Amino acid sequence: MTKHLVGVLLCALMAMNLAGCSSTVSNGKSSVVLGEYKGLSYAKSDTMVPDQEVQDEIDALLESQATPVENPERNSTPVASGDELWIDYIGYVDGAEFEGGNSNNEGASLAIGSGSFIEGFEEALIGKTVGSTTDINVTFPDPYTSNTDLSGKAATFTVTIHYVVKHEIPEFTDAFVNEYTHGEYTTATEYHQYIYDSLVTAKEDEAKAAQMNEVIEAAINNSTFTLDETEIEETYNEMVDYYTSLADSYGIDLETYASHLSMTLDDLYAELKTNAEDTIKQELFFDALIAAEQLNITEDDYAERIGEYLNYYGYVDDQAGFEAAYDKETIKKRMLYEKAAESLVEWGVPAEA
Q: Is 152 in contact with 140 (CB distance < 8 Å)?
């Protein structure tokens, strides 16, 4: 499956029989004979977090919290492309003001070159100075979807430039941290540690996922599959229906959706056909592995893992709602697949760097 496509959740498919310990599992006419799945090699990942990565996170945070203020050093210099201005404006069509064409003396931010105003508006302000008022003649595009009554019409905007904006970046202080986190963290040292710990956790999660993917792929490649064409076609059709519905939700057809992924419709169909086969193989493999190793999810396992699911799916403090929405047995099956994948890594051997 390529990075472009969202996978179908394996956990939502077919009930799992954990009785017995055969290395062969059949699902209808499709079947698998497990190959070697223990002692597989996987790459070790570097989970070290250098000081600079922590500082980069802090810098990005501070920049995101910068305050736009007047830049007095630009009061006598001409406006240039890339400047951010604080302006007021009044728009006229046929000599009369029109709805939505007035900043109402509340001021408005405008980045020159952003293309956020109609064509010609921003360019006309280049070279003007702070404090000046100028008339700009422009023409609304045709069609103009924001207000079809203005489509193709000539307009004049009277624009006053109040000042060029600069962004004051705050310092990483105890006071900043306390305010930003609403008191959850009260010192810069505490929040620095939080950022470091978060980066470590993210790297460890990425490493875990990469290791799982590596051993799963190897174990599946070591196994022998017999796939039923009817089952492949059914799974493929389910995937096509899913992406067709997804495209419909965006108000486009499947061919247009495929183009947004830099694919033709035929490319998408071919990709989904491959994905259907891969999905069936993964289901068969995990069912066979779970049966062979007699893996299960105990109530203690479930209680230990459920918190991560509630956080991920937005059901914090609402386990009953989550289980009603996704079905407890389906959730347990997803957990069981994860446990099987974790076991493959535990049975594996980290490759030497």
A: yes
Separation of first and last alpha carbons in the chain? 27
Dist. CA 123–CA 230, nearest whole Å: 61
Alpha carbon separation from 60 to 70, 173, 179, 225 (Å, rounded): 22, 15, 17, 49
Q: Residue 150 is part of a domain; what is its CATH number?
A: 3.10.50.40
CA distance 75 to 89: 19
* Count of structural domains, the chain: 2
Q: Please tell me the distance from the alpha carbon of residue 118 to that of residue 255, in angstroms, as a whole number.
A: 31
d(CA 150, CA 89): 17
Tokens (6 digits) for 112: 């020159």
Reduce the DSSP state of residue 317 to 3 states and report it.
Answer: coil
Q: List residues bridging with 33 in a β-sheet.
A: 24, 224
> Dihedral (C-alpha) 13, 15, 20, 22: value to the nearest 10 degrees?
-20
189-245: pLDDT as tens digits: 999 999 999 999 999 999 999 999 999 999 999 999 999 999 999 999 999 999 999
Entry pTM: 0.71
* CATH code for position 299: 1.10.3120.10
Asked if residue 201 lies in contact with residue 49, where contact means CB atoms within 8 angstroms, the answer is no
The Cα 175–Cα 329 span in angstroms is 48
Neighbours of 189 (CB within 10 A): 11
Residue span of the structural domain in which 158 resides: 67-168
